C-alpha cells in the first residue's frame, strides 16, 4: 500500500470515527443496519429479497433527477413544453438527466410490482406483517400516481388528452363524479390551473406521502423482521409464530454486511441499467405541443399504462362506467384485503395454487392488453393510404373507381384489404363471401356499429362503384 493511500485511509477512518462518536451512530444507525435476519438469507434464496432495496435506490435517483429537472422546468402552459425542449436539447446533461428520470419511472413501477409479487408468493404478508403489506400497497398506488402525473407535465398532445380522458373517467363515478372532475381539471376546462395542480401534486404532495409511507414501511421491516423463506408444510400459527421467529433470529446473521451485500449489488445493477438506457437512448421525444383545437389525436401513455389504455379502448360503451370505476377499485380493495382474509396458514407457493393463479392471470392479461396497446388496432390509419396492385389489378372501370373511393373516402383508414389498411373495423379482404352486393350497399349507405353513414357524402354513382369494388372481394 502506497504512503498516499495509507494517509487517505487514515483520514477517512478518523473522520468516520469522529462523526460516529458525535452522532452516536453505533447506537442508532449502525444498530439498525446490523439488526438480525434469518440465517436462511445467506443461501441463494436471499436473492429474492433484494427488490425492495432496489426500488428504494431507484426512488432516490428519481428524487435527485427530479430536483435537477425542477430547477429548469417552468410549470406554465406557455412555457412547460419549451422548457422541456430546452432541457432535452440545450441544457448541459439535460437529455441524460431527463432520460434517467424517464427510465427510472418505468423501473420503479416494475420493481414495486416484482417486490409485491415476491412478497405475495412467499406469504410474507401474513401475521405479524399485515401492515407491511398495507403500507406497501399504498406505496404501489403512490408510485403509479407519480408515474401518471409525471407524464402529464410534458404538456404535449399525449399529456393534454390524457388529462381529458382522466376527467372523463372521474365523471363516471356516482355522486362525486362532478367533484372529482373539478379536482382533476382544477376548473371548468383544462388549462394553466390544471398544469399547476399536477405539478404541485407530482413535486410536493405525492412525494411527501411516499416519504411518510416509506418511513412506516421501513420501520415495520426492522421492527417485525424480514420474513424467513417459506417451507412447504410449515404454516403460520399466530399463537406460536413470534417465539419461533425469535429463535430464528437468535441463530441469525446481521443484515449488514452479511445479507445487505446482495441488496447493494442488485441496487447498483438497477441504477446502472437506468443510467445506461438514458445514456444510449436519451430522453424520450416529446409529441406535438398541447393544443385543444386538435381533436383528431391518438393519445398514448407511457408503456406501463398501455394495457389500461387498451382496456379503455376495447370495452363496450355500455360497460364503461362499471369497468372504469369497478376494476381499479376491485384491484386495490383486493390488495388491502389480502392480509386480512389470509393472515395465517400455508406460506409456500406450491401449497397455494390459487395465489399463483392470482398472480399469473392478471400478468398474462395485462401483457396481452399491453401488446394490443402497442398495436392500437382501434385507431384509424392516417398515413400511407393505398391499396396494393394485386388488389386493383384486372378491375373494370366502375370497380377501379370504387377502389379509389375506398382510399379517398377514408374507408381504408379503418378496414384492411389484403393486409393494407387500418384494423379498427372488420377486414374486407373477402367481404363479398359473407355479404351480398345489396347488403354491402346498405351497410355503406347506412353505417352502423361505429361506422359512419356515407349516404350523405357519396353520390348514387359513387356508392354504386364502391359497392361494385367490394363485391369483387370474394
Layout of SSEs?
Layout lengths: L2 H21 L5 H5 L2 E2 L13 H20 L9 H10 L4 H28 L8 H23 L4 H15 L5 H9 L6 H33 L10 E2 L4 H10 L2 E2 H27 L24 H9 L5 H22 L3 E2 L6 H23 L13 H4 L4 H12 L2 H4 L22 H10 L13 H12 L3
Following the backbone from N to C, one meets helices and strands in this order, namely HHEHHHHHHHEHEHHHEHHHHHH
Uncertain spans, ≥5 residues at pLDDT below 50? Answer: none
Helix content: 55-70%
What is Rg?
29 Å
Global mean pLDDT:
89
Question: What is the CATH T-level topology of the largest domain?
Answer: Cytochrome Bc1 Complex, Chain C
Spatial ordering of strands, largest sheet: 1-3
Structural class label: mainly alpha
For the termini, the CA-CA separation is 84 Å
CATH H level, superfamily name of the largest domain:
Cytochrome Bc1 Complex, Chain C
Overall number of domains: 2
How would a crystallographer describe the biggest sheet?
2 strands, antiparallel
CATH top level assignment of the largest domain: Mainly Alpha
Counting DSSP E segments of at least 2 residues, the number of strands comes to 4
Shape: elongated
Oligomer category: single chain
At CATH level 2, the architecture of the largest domain is: Up-down Bundle
How would you describe this structure to a colleague?
There is one protein chain. This protein has 474 residues and is mainly alpha-helical. The chain folds into 2 domains: 31-375, Cytochrome Bc1 Complex, Chain C, CATH 1.20.810.10; 389-471, Cytochrome c-like domain (Cytochrome Bc1 Complex, Chain D, domain 2). Helix content is 63%, strand content 2%. It has helices at 3-23, 29-33, 51-70, 80-89, 94-121, 130-152, 157-171, 177-185, 192-224, 241-250, 255-281, 306-314, 320-341, 353-375, 389-392, 397-408, 411-414, 437-446, 460-471, and strands spanning 36-37, 235-236, 253-254, 345-346. Strands 1-3 form a two-stranded antiparallel sheet. α5 packs antiparallel against α6 (130-152), α6 (130-152) packs antiparallel against α13 and α18 crosses α19. The N and C termini lie far apart (84 Å). The model has no long low-confidence stretch (mean pLDDT 89).
Amino acid at each position: 500500500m502506497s504512503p498516499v493511500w495509507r494517509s487517505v485511509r487514515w483520514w477517512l477512518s478518523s473522520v468516520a470515527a469522529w462523526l460516529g462518536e458525535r452522532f452516536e451512530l453505533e447506537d442508532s444507525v449502525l444498530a439498525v443496519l446490523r439488526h438480525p435476519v434469518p440465517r436462511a438469507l445467506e443461501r441463494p434464496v436471499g436473492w429474492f429479497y433484494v427488490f425492495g432495496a432496489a426500488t428504494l435506490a431507484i426512488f432516490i435517483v428519481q428524487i435527485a433527477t427530479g430536483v435537477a429537472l425542477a430547477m429548469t422546468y417552468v410549470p406554465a402552459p406557455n412555457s412547460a413544453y419549451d422548457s422541456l425542449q430546452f432541457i432535452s436539447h440545450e441544457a448541459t446533461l439535460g437529455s441524460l438527466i431527463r432520460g434517467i428520470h424517464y427510465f427510472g419511472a418505468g423501473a420503479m413501477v416494475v420493481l414495486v410490482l416484482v417486490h409485491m409479487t415476491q412478497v405475495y408468493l412467499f406469504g410474507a404478508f401474513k401475521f405479524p406483517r399485515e401492515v407491511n403489506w398495507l403500507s406497501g400497497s399504498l406505496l404501489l398506488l403512490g408510485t403509479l400516481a407519480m408515474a401518471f402525473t409525471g407524464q402529464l407535465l410534458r404538456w404535449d398532445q399525449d399529456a393534454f388528452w390524457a388529462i381529458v380522458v382522466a376527467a372523463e373517467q372521474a365523471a363516471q363515478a356516482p355522486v362525486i363524479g362532478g367533484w372529482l372532475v373539478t379536482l382533476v381539471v382544477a376548473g371548468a376546462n383544462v388549462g394553466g390551473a390544471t398544469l399547476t395542480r399536477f405539478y404541485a401534486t407530482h413535486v410536493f404532495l405525492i412525494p411527501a406521502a411516499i416519504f411518510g409511507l416509506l418511513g412506516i414501511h421501513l420501520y415495520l421491516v426492522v421492527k417485525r423482521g424480514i420474513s424467513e423463506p417459506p417451507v412447504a408444510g410449515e404454516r403460520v400459527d399466530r399463537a406460536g409464530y413470534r417465539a419461533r421467529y425469535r429463535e430464528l433470529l437468535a441463530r441469525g446473521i446481521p443484515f449488514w454486511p452479511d445479507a445487505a451485500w446482495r441488496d447493494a449489488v442488485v441496487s447498483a445493477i438497477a441504477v446502472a441499467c437506468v443510467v445506461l438506457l438514458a445514456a444510449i437512448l436519451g430522453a424520450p421525444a416529446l409529441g406535438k405541443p398541447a393544443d385543444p383545437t386538435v381533436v383528431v389525436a391518438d393519445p398514448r401513455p407511457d408503456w406501463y399504462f398501455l394495457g389500461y389504455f387498451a382496456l379503455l379502448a376495447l370495452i363496450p360503451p355500455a360497460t364503461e362506467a362499471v369497468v372504469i370505476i369497478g376494476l381499479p377499485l376491485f384491484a386495490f380493495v383486493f390488495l388491502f384485503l389480502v392480509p386480512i382474509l389470509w393472515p395465517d396458514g400455508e406460506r409456500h407457493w406450491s401449497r397455494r395454487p390459487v395465489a399463483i393463479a392470482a398472480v399469473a392471470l392478471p400478468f398474462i392479461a395485462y401483457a396481452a392488453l399491453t401488446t394490443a396497446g402497442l398495436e392500437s388496432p382501434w385507431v384509424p390509419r392516417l398515413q400511407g393510404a393505398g391499396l396494393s396492385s394485386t388488389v386493383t389489378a384486372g378491375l373494370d372501370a366502375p370497380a377501379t373507381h370504387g377502389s379509389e373511393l375506398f382510399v379517398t373516402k377514408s374507408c381504408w383508414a379503418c378496414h384492411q384489404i389484403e393486409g393494407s389498411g387500418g384494423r379498427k373495423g372488420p377486414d374486407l379482404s373477402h367481404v363479398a363471401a359473407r355479404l351480398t352486393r345489396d347488403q354491402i350497399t346498405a351497410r355503406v349507405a347506412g353505417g352502423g356499429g361505429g361506422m359512419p353513414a356515407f349516404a350523405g357524402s357519396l353520390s348514387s354513382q359513387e356508392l354504386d362503384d364502391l359497392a361494385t369494388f367490394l363485391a369483387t372481394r370474394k
